[in-house]
Amino acid sequence: MSDGSKARLEARIANRYGDLSGKLRSAADYVVAHPVEIATRSLRSVSAASRVSPATLSRLARALDFESYEEMRELSRSDVGSRVVSFSEKAAELRAKSDAGDTMLDAQAGACMSNIAALTQSTDHATLNRAVATLGNARQVLLFGAFGSNGIVEYLAYLAHFFSPDWSMAARMGSSLSASLETIGEGDAFLVVTKTPYARRAVLATQIARENGARTIVLSDRHTCPALAHADIGFCVPSDSPQFFSSYVATLVLIETLIAMIVAQSKDDISTRIKSVEERNQRLGEFWAD
After folding, report:
1. Which of 138, 197, 224, 248 has the smallest C-beta neighbourhood within 10 Å, fewest atoms?
2. At 174, is the pLDDT very low, low, confident or very high (cuts 50, 70, 90)?
3. pLDDT in tens, 234-249
4. Which residues, 6 or more positions from 17, have their beta carbon under 8 angstroms from its beta carbon?
5. How many angstroms separate the most distant Cα atoms in the chain?
6. Strands of 167-169's sheet, edge to edge?
7. What are the chain's domains?
8. Nearest to 145 by CA among 12, 252, 8, 19
């Protein structure tokens, strides 16, 4: 198993979390919360510390599509090693900046850089390609984000409208969410962005979209996000911040990557549509010109 071809352990748990039993969820929560222990201690030792039986830990590994607990442990070991390097480098940079007069900008920028590095390490390319194929082949794509996620989804819709008329935002400008979900079904895709604290409407909308037959994609920040239980494809995007709010920087990187891949892989002549949009923008005089 190569690290490049497999998702980081937390990302894999996020994608399977909704299908796990109560016991396996408890075991998964411990695995996510204690990566160093999983990477460095024996199965028996982890079992004693977590009060989760060895058999349950082994069942968790199989539920996550590992051949054995040792294979799961090996991925955790690789992940911890990667994080130690990136975090230590980041810490050294922040200490150097602190000596020169640390600022909140330094702390925020450091957190964002760490989030992007973690996103790069954790994202499974096969999962990313599945998301691109799902969005690119959908009859229509419905987007939703509540609270702080609304502006991010608005930006995603803005980018998508350059190359497709079939992407739209649910509950835009106060319109009804239930009305937006009424027309979604087989052959469609529903993408939701939700971060801690999770919006109730985001969770229920994902559930309804899936029940209607649409393919659901969830971008969140924790493997325990309740919307992931209803996701066909899920991403755990790091959102750590020294502030009181979640950072969306890494989420923007993922969104822009999805859009770029959809455009690059499209069989349609997307460049012609984008050019047409640009020409209409110029005709309407929407951009400043000297």
Report:
1. 197
2. low
3. 999 999 888 878 899 9
4. 25, 28, 223, 224, 228, 229
5. 72
6. 167-169, 141-145, 189-193, 215-220, 233-236
7. 3-77 (1.10.10.10), 125-279 (3.40.50.10490)
8. 252
